[in-house]
């Protein structure tokens, strides 16, 4: 009896494991095919200068329009892509697309791409990014690479080489989601970040108050001293924009300005932005 139960149990676990493996394999295969089938696209969300209000850059955010499951958020498939290694191909594709679009915009507009820790750790992954830039014919100085601070917990030689190679090529690095992980000043001291993005949990939500505002001010002051841009994420209201501007943040991003939008809408945003300042910049 006990033996039978044990057998059933191990059977159950085996089935569960098999099912999970099959599910991953499916998503992995679907993801690889998704690129070919044109199911993936890149959306762009503007970053605005908090002093002038004008667009300075766009963050590229991947979207998957699955024929059956509908729109899948990146939080659902990026982890699978990371576990299966598909993220390398996917990440290079995303970078090439984002770079291609940015190359059509005015020279002073940059584009930011999110990098997975897996991409930084993979030996030789910097070549994939450099090739993507060449393919798109984009000046490397117009590509920003966003890495989340949690990445650096397991900092290794490959990641260091990746950052060195791409910095030498002219790309810049941004520390994303600052305040959600270890927020180590050691990372900021050691790596050549040009920007820090303060996580949106400091701007809105249950943890916002006197303390979070003081932290934003302190980070902004550090940014000014280090000649870095400090970006406030998740700006949904004018009050929040006013608050982070007063606290010393230099750039802002959020639904108040614009949600992430497809390429043609992003270009429209730029045209409109330039139209309001006709003398300030050449036409796109
Ligand atoms: P992230 O890099 O911190 O990107 C910002 C996320 O905040 C985006 O979600 C964006 O749509 C959302 N957001 C922007 N403004 C607001 C706002 O005002 N309010 C609120 N509530 N949310 C706002 P999204 O596009 O779902 O991306 C989620 C995360 O997935 C990203 O966080 C990033 O870590 C990852 N991700 C997205 N695209 C890529 C990619 O191409 N490659 C990699 N490796 N990761 C990506
Ligand atoms: Mg980001
Ligand atoms: Mg972020
Ligand atoms: Mg975030």
TrEMBL record:
- Domain of life of the organism encoding this protein: Bacteria
Location of the EAL domain: 24-274
Q: Which residues of the full protein are shown?
A: 355 to 638 of 638
The keyword Transmembrane is assigned to this record = yes
**Name of this chain's protein:** EAL domain-containing protein
Q: Which UniProt keywords apply?
A: Membrane, Transmembrane, Transmembrane helix
